[in-house]
Amino acid sequence: MLIAQITDLHIGAGRRLAYRKVDTAGALENAVRHVMALDPRPDIVLFTGDIGDLGTAEEYGLVRDILRGLTIPYYMVPGNHDRREPLRTAFPQAIPVTADQPFLQYVIDDFPVRLIGLDTLDEGMPGGKLCAARLDWLRHELAIATDRPRLIFMHHPPVLTGIRHMDVQNLGDGADELGGLLRKSDGVIGLICGHVHRAIHCVWQGVPISIGPSVAHQVALDVRPDGPSAFIMEPPAMHLHFWSPQQGLMTHTSYIGHFDGPYPFFDENGNLIV
Question: pTM to 2 decimals?
Answer without folding.
Answer: 0.95
